[in-house]
Amino acid sequence: MHRILLCAVALAMAMPAAQAQESLPQMRDELKKLQQRIDELEGRVKDAESTATQAATQASSRPQAESALNPGVSVILNGVYANLSRDPATYRINGFVPTMGDVAPPTRGFSLGESELAFMANIDHMFRGTLIGSISPDNDSIGVEEGYIQTIGLSHGFTIKAGRFFSAIGYQNQIHAHAWDFTDAPLAMRVFLGGQLNEDGIQFRWVAPTELYWDLGTELGRGRAFPASLSESGKNGAGSLNFFTHVGGDIGQSIAWQTGLSHLRTNPRERTFDDPTAGVSDSFNGTSRLWVASGILKWSPNGNPTYNNLKLQGEYFRRKEDGTLVFDSPGAALANGYDSRQSGWYAQGVYQFLPTWRAGYRYDRLDSGAVSIDTSASGLTAADFPILAGYKPKKHSLMVDWSPSEFSRIRLQYARDYSRMGQPDNQVFLQYIVSLGAHGAHTF
Amino acid sequence: MKTALKVLLASFAAALAWPALAALNVFACEPEWAALAQELGGDKVSVFSAVTPLQDPHRLEARPSLISRMRGADLVICSGSELEIGWLPLLFTQSGNDRIQPGSPGYIEASQFVVKLEIPKVVDRALGDIHPSGNPHIHLDPRNIAKVGDVVTERFVEIDARDADYYRSRAEDFNKRWEQAMQKWRQEAQPLKGMPIVVYHKDMSYFINWASMREAGSLEPKPGIPPTPTHLAELVERMKRSPAKAVVYSPYNNPGAAQFLSQRANIPIVPLPFTVGGTPKAKDLFGLFDDTIERLVAANK
Known about the structure:
heterodimer; A: alpha+beta; Porin; 2 domains; 16-stranded antiparallel β-barrel; B: alpha/beta; Rossmann fold; four-stranded parallel sheet; 10 helices; 8 strands; 45% helix
């Protein structure tokens, strides 16, 4: 640019004034043409330069072979402030087992929740591996929440998973706590699945070749966790058996839905539970059959959830248990015939009313149902098992949360919990949940 | 008896031959790749797009219907570079389909075949939802469409060798038409050189680069973070000092923030198609570029 100007000036000076006046318009034209060509060339050089730099950056930003094969790593941190009107040490859900520590809310005041550490990667063309450890802050222990391999090399819709994984029973059980819409698990999950059920075992799943989503699956597990329970010797074969199926699809562009049905069969051996009302420890032997029906519906305008969206979710649980109940197992073991049919459900709705803000409500309801304890043989009465006395616990929960990005969330939740017979508990939770590292994908 | 046997054999043969007659199922993550596959595959392919023009490709969910589609797919085409990281990996693991897993011929990560822009020097989430391997919205540079098109044809031929000649002749025809169109667009886009525009999200970068335009700001304070009042106020001030020629947004963006800036800073607002189907005129890839250039040129006058 400067050069052209200089040239022009020099040319103009070298020429006699008269001549210059005559040919000035011509020269202007030529200069203009030259300018255009230079612009064009400059553009091309710029293009070439930027392509070269980009190529160089792309090449240099490629990680070295060894670190490139590192698995995806992510960390979930969460912390809660809890304000509870009743002492969580006395927590129980009347009419149901498990009890106390297994189902109780977090301690009062500030507490660090379980931190999660996840590694995942494809192992080879056949398998993918996932390990999710949870670091519990209170008893300084590291637990394996999930650790499994899963096939990616099978065709025709088949997938096999083996190891420890969250059971595909119901809907919310498969979802990690940090992705839940409320701070705590629904009451029904606590009393029917002991909070969240993860089994050691193997899962077979088949997706049907239909346009409407349909899957069928089964899980064979060791029976390591509630509602199953192993006696010390354990046994060969499967201690728990779960069958599940899901159907799902879209309605127009704005609605996606999924329903599911599952059936879990276990045979608990010496499944102990504390009865806080009587101050004794009892146990159960027998068979446990659980049915779960679940439904989920998500709405967003034109299927774009960025600004507004609504999520409705509900699950219904029904359990039938037959067997014998042992009163105060460490002491005088007295066996009684036991037979129960219990049920429970919850329904919740969460609405995102602004791009980073959501509000939700959940209603929990349980029915301790018909429990019959055969007392004819032992001379005990139903009054010896006060925790199992008939009751219909319920709970209302309200929450609002703010997520400045996909990776962080701050939530305020208020709940009025009628789990203890005649003693409603007001619970306030203020919670943060953040994720560091690899971007995890969330199940529908 | 013999005729019965013949009928049985014939129907058995027909059943065996059926998969070969059936169209190739193409699962495209974004509408632009669906359109490209349709151009190149003609009636030998049946194409499905996971994202619609009104949906944000970053924020889809692994819906059950997408898992079903993925299960039956013969070829998957996605932008990649972590654009679909929130949902695509789940479709891979849940579909039980070994033909389309990453690394197999049935999966095309389109952004791997072009020169990427905006590869960050520093990767930190404090900078927003950035993509470590570069900007994934590669399709708005017409040269990239041609590059990815070659890969798509190559894979069609590999997966469905029987129809190789068909795919090759379609590719030849498409490339010729695309080359001509690119020359035309080069001419038409001349006036856009140096034109400063405000974008919503950094999803126009490849077009801006191709047309030698200038990005004068974005409505999102950081990639993936929704517009905030403070950031918009700042942007209004900046526009008063050095105004942009237009504020543009894509169909999946809420026009609210763009309207706010447009009114306060007195800059025309230009909705762009962003992808195939994003405006009535952008009904195929040719229309997408025709309409994008036309709208920007009109705003630049």
